[in-house]
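Review the following:
>
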Amino acid sequence: MTFLQSDSEVVQAYLEFRTRVVGLIREIPESQASLSVPLCPDWEVSGLISHIVGVPEDILAGRMEGVTTDAWTQAQVDRHEGESLSQLADALLATATEFDVLLPHIPSPTNSQMMMDAVTHEHDLRHAVGRADAQDSLAVTVALGWLLNMVEGKVPGRAQELVDSGVSRFELMRSLTGRRSVEQMKQLGLDGEQIKLLLQGTPLRVPTTAIEI
């Protein structure tokens, strides 16, 4: 059994995500570019956006050695150091022509994992600048599908239990990406301690304090 969305849905999710994030970046005042991102404490707002921009850039350039490592993402941040938020928005749009041709050919489940990272950081950015929105996007559905597949691979049957829990797709996604504390997950009716265990061995870490977005 797979919880993954179709490749065509993943493509659509990314296109909608990019449009949404470019719009969000253009709304953020330049004075917030240096704000710390609480859920990515090593990054400022501009650095997090640089990572969002850097993923399609690196895929297009074939710079995939060390993908997802700290060194890989830091190179994206360094590459765009000193750029304004407007310039970063333009840089993300500049990838569209070539990336949209390549996007349908990124294999599953890698495409869904990419979308999971992207939409997770979209809401990390929204958290940092206080602009909650788009919690029912297709990107959230795609990301959750990848996360549920990960859970199913570790504990067969557990993913369906999460689907049947009645918890919203957004809250499940944020819980499974380490953006909800154990206590918050318990309040949602989830087994926060078990989810914390499920995330062991991944880059995702359950926070010790409550997260609003």
Summary: The mean pLDDT is 96.
